[in-house]
TrEMBL record:
The keyword Repeat applies. Gene3D superfamilies: Ribonuclease Inhibitor. SMART domains: LRR_BAC, LRR_TYP. One of its GO terms (cellular component) is cytoplasm. This is Leucine-rich repeat-containing protein 30. The keyword Cell wall biogenesis/degradation does not apply. It comes from the Eukaryota. It comes from Bagarius yarrelli.
Length: 395
C-alpha cells in the first residue's frame, strides 16, 4: 500500500494547482517522469528507494484517507482486545469445568485438547442436568411430624421417575392413584423408608428387592392386580401395617410368618379360600380383615391371635364358627355377617367385650345378621346380645 506522506507547503512560483497538492512517497521507478507537477520542481532527496512527488490530491481527500485508515486501525485494535478477552474467558471456563469434574470424580490432564474441552463441557452439562432433575423432585419433599415425606399421588405416572431413587433421605413415599404397572428394583435404594403407599395402581407384582427395606413399617398395596406376594417381604420384620386388599391373591407365602411385629392386616376382597398359615404366627395382630373372599371356615389356630380386637370375615362362605374363637377375649368387634352360619358356639358368652348386636359396619359388637341361623337362635337374637348369651349359657 502506498502511504501518504506529510503535508508539504506550496512552493513559491508554482501554479495554483500545484499549491493545492500534497506530497506522497512513491517508488523511484514509478515517480521518475510521471510527476504531475507542471512547474517541474525537482523531487526531494530519495529515501530508501522512495521519492516524494507531488500528487494533485486535494487536502479534503487526504483527510478522508487518514480518517479511514484511523478507523481501520481502531477496529484492528478492538479485534485484538476481543480475542485476548475471549482467550481469558475460555481459559477460566475450562479451568472451572476441570475443577467441577474433578470434584465429581473426573480425572483430566492439565493440557486438554479441543476435543477434551468439548467432552468436559458435555460431562459438566450432564452432571448439572442430573443434579437439576434430582432437585426438581427434592423440592417437593416436606417435613411432617419429623419425617421426610414426598407425595407423587395422582400424577398419571406409568413408571416412577429415575431420579426418585436418588432421594435416599425419604421416609414416607406416596405413589398412590397412578398407572404404575411395575415397581423397579431401584426401590431398594430407599433404605430409610418407613411408609410406602402404592394403592390404586395397576401393579401385578412387587419386586423381590422390597425385602431390603428393613425399616419399612407400613405398606399399602391395595387396589392393584397382585396375584402373589414375594417371599422376600418376610425380611421386612418391622412391618406393623400391611394392606393387600382388592387384589387377586389366593394365599400368602409362609415366609411372612416372620412378620411378628405386624399389628394390622387387610386381605379383604381377594380370592382366598383358606386363611394362610402364616397369619396364625402374627401374634401381635389386633386387626384382621379378610372379608369378601371365599373362606369356608376359620381354623382352630385362630386362638393364637390372643391380642386380636377386630376380626372381620363378612361375605364369605363360612358354615360355622370354631369354639377356639371364644378364646379371643379381647375381641371388641366380630363381624360374621353374610355367611352361611347356622349355629354359634355355646362359649360365645366368654367374649364379654362384645357388648351389643351391631348393625352399622363400623360399630363395635357382634355382627351376625344375614346368616341362615337355626331356630330358636334367630328369635333369641331379637332380644339382644345378652339374651343370646343367656340362652347359650342355659343350653
Amino acid at each position: 500500500m502506498l502511504s501518504a506522506g506529510s503535508e508539504h507547503s506550496p512552493l513559491e512560483g508554482c501554479s495554483s494547482t500545484c499549491q493545492s497538492t500534497v506530497a506522497i512517497w512513491m517508488p523511484r521507478a514509478i515517480a521518475g517522469t510521471n510527476s504531475s507537477c507542471s512547474c517541474n520542481v525537482n523531487s526531494a532527496k530519495p529515501e530508501n528507494g522512495y521519492e516524494m512527488i507531488w500528487d494533485p490530491m486535494s487536502r479534503r481527500k487526504k483527510k478522508l484517507w487518514d480518517a479511514a485508515n484511523q478507523i481501520h486501525t481502531q477496529k484492528d485494535e478492538e479485534n485484538d482486545e476481543n480475542e485476548k478477552l475471549q482467550e481469558v474467558v475460555s481459559h477460566k471456563i475450562v479451568k472451572a469445568e476441570r475443577s467441577h469434574c474433578a470434584s465429581m470424580g473426573g480425572k483430566k490432564s492439565k493440557e486438554a485438547t479441543s476435543k477434551d474441552m468439548k467432552f468436559v463441557g458435555r460431562k459438566s452439562a450432564a452432571c448439572e442436568e442430573t443434579v437439576t432433575s434430582s432437585d426438581r423432585i427434592r423440592k417437593y419433599v416436606v417435613m411432617q411430624f419429623g419425617y421426610n415425606v414426598l407425595s407423587l399421588a395422582r400424577q398419571g405416572m406409568i413408571a416412577p421417575p429415575e431420579e426418585l431413587w436418588e432421594l435416599t433421605e425419604l421416609q414416607k413415599l406416596n405413589l398412590s392413584l397412578n398407572c404404575l404397572c411395575f415397581l423397579p428394583s431401584s426401590v431398594a435404594s430407599l433404605q430409610n423408608l418407613v411408609v410406602l403407599n402404592l394403592w390404586g395402581n395397576q401393579l401385578t407384582s412387587l419386586p423381590p428387592e422390597i425385602g431390603q427395606l428393613r425399616n419399612l413399617k407400613v405398606l399399602f398395596a391395595y387396589h392393584n392386580h397382585l396375584t402373589d406376594v414375594p417371599e422376600e417381604l418376610g425380611f421386612c420384620t418391622k412391618l406393623e401395617v400391611l394392606s393387600l386388599a382388592n387384589n387377586q391373591l389366593t394365599s400368602l407365602p409362609d415366609s411372612l410368618s416372620a412378620l411378628t411385629s405386624l399389628q394390622k392386616l387387610n386381605l379383604s376382597h381377594n380370592n382366598i379360600v383358606y386363611l394362610p398359615a402364616c397369619v396364625y404366627a402374627m401374634k401381635k395382630l389386633v386387626f384382621l380383615h379378610v372379608a369378601c373372599n371365599r373362606l369356608e371356615n376359620i381354623a382352630e389356630h385362630i386362638q393364637a391371635l390372643a391380642d386380636l380386637k377386630t376380626l372381620i370375615v363378612e361375605e364369605n362362605c363360612i358354615h360355622s364358627l370354631p369354639k377356639m374363637l371364644c378364646c379371643l377375649t379381647k375381641l371388641e368387634l366380630l363381624n360374621v355377617d353374610y355367611n352361611d352360619i347356622q349355629n354359634v358356639p355355646a362359649e360365645m358368652h366368654q367374649l364379654s367385650r362384645l357388648q351389643k348386636l351391631a348393625a352399622h359396619p363400623l360399630d363395635k359388637g357382634l355382627h351376625i345378621m344375614h346368616n341362615p341361623l337355626l331356630k330358636p337362635i334367630k328369635e333369641v337374637l331379637d332380644g339382644g346380645l345378652q339374651a343370646l348369651y343367656n340362652y347359650l349359657k342355659a343350653n
